[in-house]
Write a structure and sequence with these properties.
mainly beta; single chain
Length: 82
């Protein structure tokens, strides 16, 4: 399964940083109960910056999503099967 572009509703605080509040995955609305982790990955060669969020959804699952600052898209990262 491939990573998927998703629609995300965000909140911009006083600093202007967007924080995800809910997202839609396969037409299902998932509210973010808790942000577990955040980090930034930058690829200087391609000038791509991604802001990652590991979140707990109200569906009981942990999700990893990121915002691609170059394409202005939110992506849901699919779990890899081991």
């Amino acid at each position: 399964m491939l990573d998927e572009i998703i629609e995300v509703v965000t909140y911009s605080g006083y600093r202007g940083d967007e924080v995800p509040r809910l997202f839609f995955l396969n037409e299902k609305r998932i509210e973010i109960v808790e942000i577990l982790e955040t980090w930034i990955e930058e690829d200087f060669a391609s000038k791509v910056r991604k802001r990652f969020f590991k979140v707990k959804g109200n569906d009981g699952n942990t999700h990893q999503i990121y915002y691609n600052e170059k394409t202005l898209e939110w992506i849901h990262v699919q779990k890899k099967n081991k």
